[in-house]
Amino acid sequence: MIYNMEFETLPREALEAIQLRRLKQTVERVYATVPFYRKQFDKAGVRPDDIRTLDDLRRLPFTTKQDLRDNYPFGLFAVPMENVVRIHASSGTTGKPTVVGYTARDIQTWAELMARALSAAGATRGDIIHNAYGYGLFTGGLGVHYGAEKLGASVIPISGGNTKRQIMIMKDFGATVLTCTPSYALHLAEVAMEMGVDPKTLKLKVGVFGAEPWSEKMREEIEQKLYLTAIDIYGLSEIIGPGVSVECIEAKKGLHIFEDHFIPEIIDPETGKNLGPGEVGELVITTITKEAFPVIRYRTRDITYLNPEPCICGRTHIRMGRVTGRSDDMLIIRGVNVFPSQIESVLMEIDEVEPHYQLIVDREGNLDILTVLVEVGEHAFSDEVRKLQELERKIEKNIKEYLGVSAKVKLVEPKTIARSEGKAQRVIDKRKI
Ligand code: DLL
To answer: Taking Cα atoms as reference points, which of 260, 255, 287, 329 lies closest to residue 78?
Structure first.
């Protein structure tokens, strides 16, 4: 169901008129209130009144994660702290986190976008939403929570962790919608089986999964194991949190970006040049309604493409492809570029292996060595050693054939790869340690 019929189905011309008006306001406001933007725009020789068409956006400089770090913690806020009612931060694997702020109106906007997203996934006010995204500085938990309440559904703020208890609650409370990372969804399925709770007997009908890359094959796996329809949701704290884009249950093909609030672009990550529809590159987003933390041409580092084709669901907002990885997650193994999600796709084609894997990258002398640890099912593991070795060789061959990279595959016992309650750690790059 379309939550906001008026804005989600706007004809292109009307949508672009709204975008331009909001873009101009945002650009004027950041120029007047955020010294960083004033300096950047001056350096690029652009003034707010130079923005006369949507294409003029391209004249503005990019904003990067480094800019956010340089202005840590509150340097990019565009309103006085008295008007900031919430602060979130992204974990950041190295150094300081990235800090973002919200006014009361920003929180309302976010709730509306998340209500739209849950609705696009098929949720209604009659649903019981088991929200296992982490509550805290991470935007997942509270982002989904406010959207679920705005939709009028019953939300269970279970957060991540204590998985056995989650299964009991999911069963006893009759949850119909599950929200968590795709890797945690698989873990929930596994623990349910261990506890003797067949997921088939749960009432789940839909899962809204995101916050980390996952593949089509992983979707099939989750759908089969949890007996639900799995929907992809995308977002990042720097832009607002979850609810930047979402798949619709009607098509399940590409994620609609809420274009009345965000303007997306795709650029070549090397040259910064804009790319056309269907061309794969880095997603850049400009927020046009945020008050406390507006961002201009933010380089997300997420790799995807835009699809302007009309969608069967009736929404007119452009779709982005599934995010296959981040430009900084890309591994370069002896000169060959590989994303962890590509390895995942190869692994998922093989029946005997489970969707739990980890990539270890190391260097021996001058050579990069990629080792793929992957779990096999109970059945396969009881097979003789020779059979397991054959399976390892078969996976190595497929990786080489499809991705052009040499990897050493090591099958490991069921349940030996650490399960995550939030974002899975797929890669351990020892070259960086
Ligand atoms: O992960 C927000 C979120 C919460 C999204 C819950 C969806 C559901 P951050 O912690 O700032 O925010 O991480 C953002 O996670 O730049 C992507 O690299 C990745 N990511 C998020 N959603 C997806 C997705 C939240 N559906 C970063 N597919 C982003 C692939 C995703 N990657």
So the answer is: 287
Residues 337/330, Cβ–Cβ less than 8 Å: yes
Distance 5 CA to ligand 1 centre (A): 26
From edge to edge, which strands make up the β-sheet containing 306-307?
154-156, 128-131, 177-180, 206-210, 229-236, 241-247, 255-257, 319-320, 306-307
Atom of ligand 1 nearest to the CA of 208: 8
| Residue with CA at minimum distance from ligand 1 atom 29 | 236
- For 107, 142, 165, 274, 413, the CA distances from 188, given in Å and listed in that order, are 30, 20, 10, 41, 19
Q: Is any atom of ligand 1 closer than 6 Å to the C-beta of 140?
A: yes
Q: How far is CA 275 from CA 113, 236, 272, 281, in A?
A: 27, 22, 9, 7
Look at ligand 1, atom 12, and give the residue with the nearest C-alpha: 236
Instruction: State the Cα–Cα distance between residues 25 and 48, nearest whole angstrom.
Output: 9
Distances (CA, A) of 328 to 295, 332, 423, 424: 20, 10, 16, 16
- CB of 232 within 6 A of ligand 1: the answer is yes
What homologous superfamily is domain 1-327 in, according to CATH? Answer: ANL, N-terminal domain (3.40.50.12780)
Domain residue limits, the chain: 1-327, 331-432
User: What is the pLDDT at residue 358?
Assistant: 96
- Pick from 68, 218, 302 the residue to mutate for probing ligand 1's pocket: most ligand atoms within 8 Å of its CB: 302
CATH class of 331-432: alpha beta
Q: Show the low-confidence residues of the chain (pLDDT under 50).
A: none
CA-329 nearest atom, ligand 1:
18
- CB distance 432 to 363 below 8 Å: no
Ligand 1 centre distance from Cα of residue 184 (Å): 14
Length of the chain: 433
> Which tokens in the block code for residue 305?
């493409």
112 lines ligand 1 (CB under 6 A): no
pLDDT per position as a tens digit, 233-274: 999 999 999 999 999 999 999 999 999 999 999 999 999 999
* pTM recorded for the entire structure: 0.96
Ligand 1 close to Cβ of residue 133 (< 6 A): yes
pLDDT tens readout for residues 355-408: 999 999 999 988 999 999 999 988 877 778 899 999 999 999 999 999 999 999
Report the distance separating Cα 244 and Cα 323, nearest Å: 13
Peptide bond into 73 cis (omega under 30): yes
Question: Ligand 1, from 131, 178, 285, 323: best to mutate by most atoms within 8 Å of Cβ?
Answer: 323
